[in-house]
Sequence to fold (163 residues):
Amino acid sequence: MGKLTVLALRAVLVALLAGSVFVQTVMAALLASDLDGGELAGRRVPIVVLVVLGVVTVEAVLLSTWRLVTMVRRGTVFSDAAFRYVHVVTGAFAAAGVLVCALGAVLAPGEAVAPGVVLLLGGVALAAFGVALVVLVMRVLLAQAVARDAEASQMQAELNGVI
Fold:
């Protein structure tokens, strides 16, 4: 991966992390105050908590991606240490799916939120679960690459011993 690509990706990750911190601090407070006087006032706390926890899952993915990019840049991504970050990404997407389902369940009762919005949240949850499964498949590919890299290193060591 080229230096320019890594730099561009890191710039995007920093911008997204800054945006997520903004959402957690400013936007969550604004959301809480907006929900204070309407039909959803009784569900204000669970809604804000679910939104903040959802942003935490995004931050976990962003930070794990940063670490994986660092490993790619150093040439150490094909190691067992990379699995830790892949597991975090998989877990974060699965947790995000659960949180979106929970948000839909909190918003569903009553007339305050249109049924289509709850249905859209179900679709977003399904998409998050789908991404978790895709990352799980990519983890299997990483495991195969790590095994092949170890095998190649062993064969190179044997070849060096013969020479």
In short: The CA atoms of residues 22 and 126 lie 26 Å apart.
